[in-house]
Design brief:
This protein is α/β, with parallel strands linked by helices. Helices cover 45% and strands 14% of the residues. 51% of the residues are buried.
């Protein structure tokens, strides 16, 4: 079935199918026709026929041909203002097109092409977006350990640990069945290696058996973790073609552009577009486009952008980063681009089109405005049909809510209107393809102006609305003039009607396509040197408009999942009116990529408490239909109790009063001084680096000020701050500014490596609490103060609590929904679990974790039993101090308690090195031995699924000596052995349940009773 698409100057005969297949056909057509040595290039005025199936592709199966017929005539950008369709380019194309063609040709010449599948049964099997080619190579020199799971052979760099086998097996199951998996495995248990080996092994098998396989998109939270993931990939035996996507902040090599953005106080994205336009304009010659002579001669340009299309840059980029088996990170591409002269940012995006695996930050997956962007440098980017791995996914529900939310001030809407109104004046003859026909620039801009014009008028009217009073409308948000979607307030449907968003011509999907098409046309004009200086500014507003169209359309079509508010704030330069549209149900964003992805894996070292993630994602249709039936995985840690201690401390050292850090506590100088003495006692007993987390910056700054204060006749040599300074070579206070954080982190690491160590006073959810790897002496101890509940007065937090309360009370709801308070508390527990994960970063690491708050305890006057919300892998290491509520009832007994606790810490750090030495010797013996491939049956016998009795049985029997080493842990070891012997026959005689949680809960209760 074929159909003809006719444009004004060009007729194309293409196979009916998804738009991405047609774009791939055009890309391959340009690839072949641009190679003059092959003799396939078509002369002007003559038709050329390219059979894409005739292009040699190793190991392809069931391939059908795609024919592309192009008649002579002007192409887009060929003359004037480029009035032809935006899907066509000139004969030479933009520098992006030239780079893509060069890279495709080099891939063909090297015999390692990657093309989107065009098989006849692609639509039926759902593989129309898969890559075609041959399996990636293996470098087995450093990976002698193999294991067979689910019928697939995995090559491991080290003897596989039980959590690794659990993660790998569940990831393979998700890939094989197209499921959504939630996997928790503590940091240091080989989680990343397991995810990489499992997904790449499954991809290799698909290539080998079917000739086609999905691309793997591996998302991490921060740019620093991108380099860490590439380092993990280098440890494996797999050598795929790969790409790393990052922001311009990490990839830009033009110092002048960076300085211009800083000097003009504009975004680097805008400065980059302006510099690219200027470079193309200068390349066209001194007399070209004289009508743009008003552009300042001092405006910086970017020659790196111009040189993207040179064969030299393409060759060096391919040899270093594009060739199969070349493993690289952003720094490697930056160095290559500096020598070759091309732009690393655009090069990385072009390389990602044909890569086996792509590493990227989370927002490339979660944010629809980014993941669904189809700019010309991301022509082959898509999440459809991909294997999506979201590592460090502990904040995935918050990330989804933020990705689906938008807040726009009135001033931005007005600027978007001005920019769209001016575009047709600069390019009156510009045409683009939309709504099944060719339309002129004026009509396109008039269509796109509907949304910002209507929203601006609506905000001006609602901004004058008086603040609601009790009885009229429930006022729940400070500064909000109107609220829609909360109990006692109008619905979001009413907002959509009043704002004029229900008109299909305002928020229809065609408007998003029109905005994308206009953006692509302006980008191509810029790449061809035919853009004005204002066009670079317009690109930024078009990107913002695309975001508004997409997210407000989601709100208008899912009114029960959103809350909308109009704010008016008083400022020195005038009142600021803004519209906020907040997504309350994160499952809606999960569906934007999970519904079309091949499979999704959500993994992290700390997902606990899992109740928050599971219930928050229940609004996702994809998750409810495709979640793995076994439920989430909760793997154990591989360290022994001789290496780790989690102490819950409930009493202050001097007074013996309970430690309860409330809002009022941070205003009491007496409490803060006593707390400082407690922290100093702990820091003196812990070597190396110590991280101490506070609930907020205000609490941190109040304590530092109080500890440093010297009053009356008090000597400066005593007090908490003086004790901390004597104990550690450096004391680092985490700065509020993100720009100052790297320097603070560097100072802390340098001090931690010294003989005296270092102390960092940080905050939960800050830079120090996640995204950084503090191995070994960099973090021997973590001290957690209080319970970091989110700010109750934050408008988003207050709205979410009220919305969840309304959902939980709704009649007829068949599923469990978290109440507002439950959701609020679980956010705090997750932040603590994440902070505790800063220590124990690998199997040979050791350290102490301290919780300073009585509410974590299971017994006592202030006990609330919050320890049940800690990650399951922490359970074997928990000790409560005091172990009996009768102890430390006064100052004298409290002093004895703290002497015992500090002695316990010193004993831990004295004995742990010997335990590590013994484990390393055993590990070296296992690594040196010639291993035989592990069968699936043998793998099942490994403790590989969760903290259920079978892994505990293996854990205790393997480390019984270590468990009995300390008197404080001896009774725990005996109780665990007795319970395990009782549970094991029952577990082995029945199928695994999704959680196997009851025995673990019984164990925790018995430990509490013993304590």
């Amino acid at each position: 079935m074929q159909k003809v698409r006719r444009h004004r100057h060009t007729a194309k005969l293409v196979k009916a199918g998804p738009p991405n297949l047609r774009r791939e056909a055009e890309a391959v057509k340009r690839l072949v026709s641009s190679d003059a040595t092959t003799g396939t290039g078509s002369a002007s005025g003559r038709a050329s026929v390219v059979d894409v199936a005739a292009v040699p592709r190793p190991a392809l199966r069931h391939t059908t041909s795609l024919h592309v017929v192009e008649q002579g005539g002007s192409s887009s950008g060929g003359g004037g203002d480029g009035s032809s369709s935006g899907s066509r380019v000139s004969d030479n194309g933009t520098v992006i097109d030239q780079l893509r063609s060069h890279l495709d040709r080099l891939a063909l010449q090297s015999g390692q092409p990657r093309f989107v599948a065009t098989s006849s049964d692609a639509t039926r099997t759902g593989t129309d977006d898969w890559l075609q080619g041959r399996p990636c190579d293996l470098d087995k020199s450093g990976c002698a350990h193999t294991v067979h799971l689910s019928g697939i052979q995995l090559w491991m760099p080290f003897p596989p640990m039980a959590p690794q086998l659990a993660v790998a097996e569940r990831a393979l199951q998700a890939c094989s069945t197209g499921r959504i998996a939630i996997l928790e495995s503590p940091t240091g248990t080989g989680k990343s290696i397991a995810l990489l080996t499992a997904t790449l092994s499954w991809q290799r098998q698909c290539f080998a058996t079917r000739g086609t396989a999905p691309q793997i998109v591996y998302g991490v939270r921060t740019h620093a973790q991108l380099a860490q993931m590439v380092g993990e990939l280098r440890k494996t035996a797999y050598r795929p073609s790969m790409a790393v996507l990052g922001s311009r902040e990490q990839a830009c090599i033009n110092r002048e552009v960076r300085d211009a953005a800083r000097r003009q106080r504009t975004s680097l994205n805008l400065a980059c577009r302006q510099a690219a336009r200027r470079a193309i304009q200068l390349q066209s010659g001194p007399g070209a486009y004289s009508r743009q002579s008003y552009v300042a001669e001092t405006e910086c340009s970017c020659q790196a952008y111009v040189q993207l299309g040179t064969p030299r840059h393409a060759r060096q980029a391919f040899d270093r980063c594009g060739r199969k088996g070349s493993l690289w990170d952003i720094e490697d591409l930056v160095e290559t681009s500096k020598s070759a002269g091309g732009c690393p940012y655009y090069t990385a995006h072009v390389l990602a089109g044909n890569a086996d695996i792509v590493f990227c930050p989370h927002n490339y997956i979660l944010d629809p405005a980014i993941s669904q962007c189809r700019s010309h440098h991301r022509e082959r980017w898509s999440l459809r049909g991909r294997v999506i791995v979201l590592d460090e996914a502990h904040n995935v529900e918050q990330g989804c809510r933020e990705a689906g939310s938008v807040q726009v001030p009135l001033t931005e809407l007005q600027q978007i209107n001005v920019a769209l109104a001016a575009l047709p004046l600069r390019h009156p003859h510009l045409q683009l393809r939309a709504f099944g026909r060719d339309i002129r620039c004026r009509e396109a801009c008039d269509q796109l102006q509907r949304l910002p014009v209507r929203l601006a008028d609506f905000l001006q009217q609602e901004g004058d609305h008086p603040l609601p009073h009790t009885g009229q409308q429930q006022q729940v948000l400070a500064g909000a003039r109107r609220v829609w979607g909360l109990p006692g307030n109008p619905s979001v449907s009413e907002f959509a009607c009043r704002a004029g968003l229900v008109d299909r011509g305002t928020l229809g999907h065609g408007m998003e396509e029109l905005a994308l098409e206009l953006t692509d046309r302006v980008l191509r004009l810029q790449a061809l040197g035919k853009a004005f200086a204002e066009d670079a500014v317009l690109l930024g507003w078009l990107t913002r408009l695309q975001e508004l169209l997409m997210k407000l359309r989601l709100a208008a079509s899912n009114v029960d999942a959103y809350v909308v508010a109009v704010f008016r704030e008083t400022a020195p330069d005038g009142d600021r009116i803004s519209l906020a549209s907040w997504l309350m149900s994160p499952g809606l964003i999960l569906d934007t990529f999970a519904s079309t992805a091949h499979c999704v894996v959500l993994a992290s070292g700390t997902l606990a408490p899992l109740a928050a993630i599971r219930t928050e994602l229940m609004d996702s249709v994809a998750y409810m239909n495709r979640a793995e039936p076994q439920g989430p995985l909760e793997a154990c840690h591989v360290v022994t109790p001789a290496q780790a201690l989690l102490a819950i401390v409930t009493k202050l050292p001097a007074s013996g009063n309970p430690i309860v850090t409330t809002f009022e506590s941070w205003r009491s100088a007496t409490f803060m001084m006593s707390l400082g003495e407690a922290i100093a006692s702990l820091v003196e007993a812990i070597p190396g680096g110590v991280l101490c987390f506070f609930p907020s910056y205000s609490a941190l700054e109040a304590c530092v000020t109080t500890w440093k204060r010297v009053s009356g006749n008090e000597s400066p040599s005593i007090g908490p701050w003086a004790r901390l300074a004597r104990a550690k070579a450096a004391i680092i206070v985490e700065p509020r500014s993100s720009e100052a954080s790297p320097a603070a982190c560097t100072s802390f690491m340098a001090g931690a490596r010294s003989s005296s160590g270092a102390l960092c006073l940080a905050v939960y959810r800050g830079k120090m609490s996640e995204g950084l790897s503090f191995n070994d002496e960099l973090c021997r101890g973590v001290i957690c103060l209080g319970i970091p509940y989110p700010q109750a007065m934050n408008p988003v937090v207050a709205t979410k609590r009220r919305w969840n309360d309304a959902q939980s009370r709704r009649a007829g709801v068949a599923r469990s929904v978290l109440s507002g308070n439950e959701w609020y508390e679980l956010q705090a527990y997750r932040a603590v679990n994440q902070a505790l994960g800063r220590c124990l970063r690998h199997r040979f690491d050791y350290g102490a974790l301290i919780l300073l708050d009585a509410r974590w305890a299971a017994q006592g006057l202030q006990a609330r039993g919050h320890r049940r919300h800690l990650a399951r892998w922490l359970a074997p290491f928990v000790e409560e101090w005091p172990q009996s509520p009768q102890l430390a009832s006064n100052a004298a007994s409290s002093t004895v308690l703290w002497h015992g606790l500090t002695g316990r810490l010193r004993a831990l750090f004295a004995q742990a090195p010997a335990e590590i030495t013994s484990q390393k010797a055993s590990h070296a013996h296992q690594t040196a031995a010639a291993p035989e491939p592990m069968s699936a049956a043998a793998a099942v016998q490994q403790p590989a699924h969760s903290c259920s009795p079978r892994p505990l049985q293996h854990f205790v029997r393997q480390h019984a000596t270590a468990l009995q080493a300390g008197a404080a842990c001896a009774h725990v070891a005996m109780d665990m052995r007795q319970d395990i012997d009782q549970w094991a026959p029952q577990i082995q005689s029945r199928p695994r349940t999704p959680r196997d949680a009851a025995p673990h809960q019984d164990l925790a209760q018995q430990q509490q009773q013993q304590q």
